[in-house]
Design goal:
By secondary structure, the chain is α+β, with helices and mostly antiparallel strands. It is built from 12 helices and 12 strands. The chain has helices spanning 3-16, 22-54, 79-86, 130-133, 156-161, 198-204, 223-231, 243-287, 289-297, 302-332, 354-381, 384-388; strands spanning 61-66, 101-112, 118-126, 138-142, 151-155, 170-172, 177-185, 193-197, 212-216, 238-242, 336-340, 345-349. Strands 1, 2, 3, 4, 5, 6, 7, 8, 9 and 10 form a 10-stranded mixed sheet that branches. The longest helix has 45 residues, at 243-287. The mean pLDDT is 79.
Length: 391
């Protein structure tokens, strides 16, 4: 009998006896399902957040921050600096002939969520040319805010996450009430906050300069000209980045933290699942010792026994992985997530993709192989006479 036929025969015997070992088999399946559900969910948060940030920004736009800062919320530019920036070469013009640049101020608003907790949401004030600089912003309900008035438009993502956020509602800001007059979409991280007129916002905070300047370049190649003109100016201390590069850097920091969390949590659960698989496979081998020894006595080689035990471990692991992935998809896919800090946050939808499910299955197969390897080797090395005596 060929090795493949031996493997098939022993594997078929193993599978037929699984119902007799349902309790122990379920231990492996449940353990693997828990690992994969957590792994896929946390990886889903990481990838969904990164995709949201990476979809924000364009390579033909540039953002200017105060030198040494890595985010808009911690940046601040003087009026003289912003005037120098928007006068630099390489900036495109709008259809009206104006400089395609927006001076933005970015801060945060504390909002109550549906569960009663409080989270910070970003508030961005934009210059009059802000919508021309960011044509992806589309007003889908209500109207645009009016300069000089305490009015806001809210991102569609914020509405999904927070309670009582609708047109006509008010938001407290610096001992004043600001009215929501519209809803916008942008398909990126900007949907995670509010937009308003920058001059009104600066006046409310008693500030003169904005947080950043974002410009549309004449072309992608004009970036070097624009950057060099600013960084070589001795009176300026600024950092100049392509807008998509800026948001990529923002995603890297958060992604690294989530990767550590994912590895730590999933690693602990994987160790537990590994021991469960080891115990189950050892029990399975012990309960079939006489059967395995009989097969060995009539000519079945150790290779077939090893392969059949590993196949069973992989099968249980894949079943557990599919159940875990299904749990993650049913409970979390499409869920709105709010991640941020005391200043601002990003609202995005968690997506459980086919790629994440595949990662979960591969992780489960690795645990299954490790859990079945030692019991498989023990089964192959068990002396025939010892096994037949039921020892």
């Amino acid at each position: 009998m060929t090795l493949f036929r031996q493997i098939g025969a022993v594997t078929a015997m193993n599978l037929r006896t699984i119902p007799q070992r349902m309790a122990s088999s379920c231990v492996v399946v449940v353990g693997i399902a828990g690992v994969v559900a957590v792994l896929v969910s946390v990886l889903g948060i990481t990838t969904s957040l990164e995709e949201t940030l990476l979809s924000t920004g364009r390579s033909d736009r540039a953002i200017v921050l105060r030198g040494g800062t890595n985010a808009e919320v911690s940046s601040g530019l003087s009026v003289d600096a912003t005037l120098t920036i928007i006068d630099a070469p390489g900036i495109a013009r709008t259809a009206d002939g104006e400089v395609a640049a927006t001076i933005d101020m970015v801060t945060g608003i504390d909002l109550a969520k549906a569960d009663g907790s409080v989270a910070a949401v970003s508030l961005r004030g934009m210059s009059a040319e802000g919508l021309s600089v960011r044509p992806e912003i589309e007003l889908v309900a209500g109207r645009l805010y009016q300069p000089g008035l305490r009015e806001l438009i809210v991102g569609a993502g914020v509405q999904e996450e927070f309670a009582t956020i609708a047109i006509g509602d008010t938001v407290p800001l610096r001992e004043s009430q600001w009215t929501i007059v519209g809803v916008f979409t942008s398909g990126d991280a900007l949907e995670s906050g509010f937009l308003t007129d920058v001059d009104t916002l600066l006046s409310t905070y008693q500030r003169t300069g904005g947080s950043s300047v974002t410009v549309v370049l004449e072309s992608e190649e004009a970036f070097d000209v624009f950057r060099d003109a600013l960084t070589s100016n001795p009176v300026l201390s600024v950092d100049v980045l392509r807008e998509d590069e800026y948001y990529q850097r923002q995603s890297e920091g958060v992604g690294d933290i989530l990767d550590v969390v994912t590895t730590f949590v999933a690693g602990i659960m994987a160790v537990g699942a590994l021991f469960a698989a080891l115990n189950t496979m050892y029990a399975a081998v012990s309960s079939r010792g006489v059967e395995i020894a009989t097969l060995r006595a009539i000519g079945f080689g150790p290779g077939g026994v090893v392969a059949s035990v590993l196949f069973e471990a992989l099968l249980l692991s894949v079943v557990g992985a599919l159940i875990g992935a299904a749990i993650a998809w049913a409970l979390f896919s499409g869920t709105t997530i709010n991640m941020g800090n005391l200043v601002s946050s990003i609202v995005f939808r968690l997506q459980v993709s086919v790629g994440l499910v595949a990662q979960g299955i591969l992780w489960a197969c690795a645990v299954g192989l490790l859990g079945g390897l030692l019991p498989a080797i023990r089964a192959a090395r068990l002396p025939v006479a010892t096994a037949i005596r039921g020892l």
